[in-house]
Each structure stands twice: as C-alpha cells, then as structure tokens.
Amino acid sequence: MPDNYRLSKGILIDEDTLQDRIEVLGGQINHDYAGMTGLLLVCVLKGGVLFLTDLMRRIHVPHAIDFMAVSSYGVGQRETSGVVRIDMDLRQSIEGKHLLIVEDIVDTGTTLNYLKGLLQSRQPASIKICALLNKPSRRVADIHIDYIGFDIPDVFVYGYGLDLDELYRNLPYVAIAK
Length: 178
Ligand code: IMP
Hints:
The chain has helices at about 5-10, 15-30, 50-55, 110-120, and strands spanning about 10-15, 40-45, 65-70, 85-90, 100-105, 125-135, 145-150, 155-160, 175. The chain has about 180 residues and is of the alpha/beta class. It has one domain: Rossmann fold (3-Layer(aba) Sandwich). It has a 6-stranded mixed beta sheet with strand order 4-3-2-5-6-7, with helices on both faces. The protein has a 3-stranded antiparallel beta sheet with strand order 1-9-8. Helix 2 (about 15-30) crosses helix 3. The radius of gyration is 16 Å and the shape is globular. The structure holds inosinic acid (IMP). The site of inosinic acid has 16 residues, from strand 5, helix 4 and strand 8. Inosinic acid binds near residues 72, 104, 105, 109 and 156.
C-alpha cells in the first residue's frame, strides 16, 4: 500500500493497537473457556475473516471454526436495511456446542440480534459474541456483546476485513471513510 494512500485517509486504529487488543481478547477467551470441549468459532463473513484468523491464533482452547455469510445492506449503501439475509449457512449441527460468534462490527445490532436468535433455535450449549468494533451510539437492538475489541464513534470505517464498497478489506488497520 503506497504511503500517500495511508496519509490521505484517517487511521482510526493502527495495526499494533489492533494486534495488542486481539491478544488481550484471546487471553480472556482462553480463561473463560479453559477446560471446555466443543468450542466452535462462527465467523460472520465477509468482514470477520481477518479478525478470526488473528484471534484464533491466540486461542489455545481446542476449537473448530465455521462460517456464515449474512447481508443486511448492499454495495453502495451505508445503512442497514433492517432485513437480514442468510447468504451462506453453517455446514454442521451446532447442538450441544459452545458457540462464539466472531463479528467485525456491531452497529445497530440488527444483524447479530437476528443471527443469535437463529442459532439459539438450533440448541447449542451456549452462545457468546466477540466483536472487534462496536458503535454503541448507533444501537437499536438490545444485544449483549461478551467480548468487545474497541468502542468507536459513529463513523463509517473500513479496513481489517471491513469494506468500502467491497474494497480495502486487506488493510491491516482500521480507517475512517471520508
Ligand atoms: P448492524 O446490523 O447495523 O449491526 O450492522 C452490522 C453490519 O453492518 C456489519 O457486520 C458490517 O458488515 C456492516 N457495517 C456496519 N458499520 C460499518 C462500517 O462502519 N463499515 C463497514 N461495515 C459496517
């Protein structure tokens, strides 16, 4: 990534700060799930994928991973439509498993609220949520997030898995869109 690109945009959370925080989150998860079996990390695509791969390397409790793809708004939109669509479902039964949903960002909470309800109906042993970013000022749905990386203000961000019209997910930091 050319330097002039970096400098022309505001970096909200730099790479070192992200990685340090993910290390701490991994430590908390190791502590909370110590000795447990049946941990399944459910990554919400596409935005959660970088976070998942960094987080899972810090989780030493034996665990499996799986993926779901959901969409609540389309390319070019920055507000949720309020209607959540499952684009790709899990490929396994989650009955009796300890689910940890790994999400990039919680904004209104509509997506996670829907997802948690859907997964709950499949009778896992437990469900917790781990979100890298949280915009508390935007919350509409009453949803508890068990592990939060960073509370951020009401700005549209991209990078580190999050997209700007499907681009820039590869950036190792979180930036603010103009
Ligand atoms: P919610 O349903 O309003 O909580 O929205 C959650 C989804 O909206 C996230 O999984 C993201 O895909 C997307 N989203 C919300 N805020 C942002 C942002 O600032 N940048 C990129 N995507 C966002």
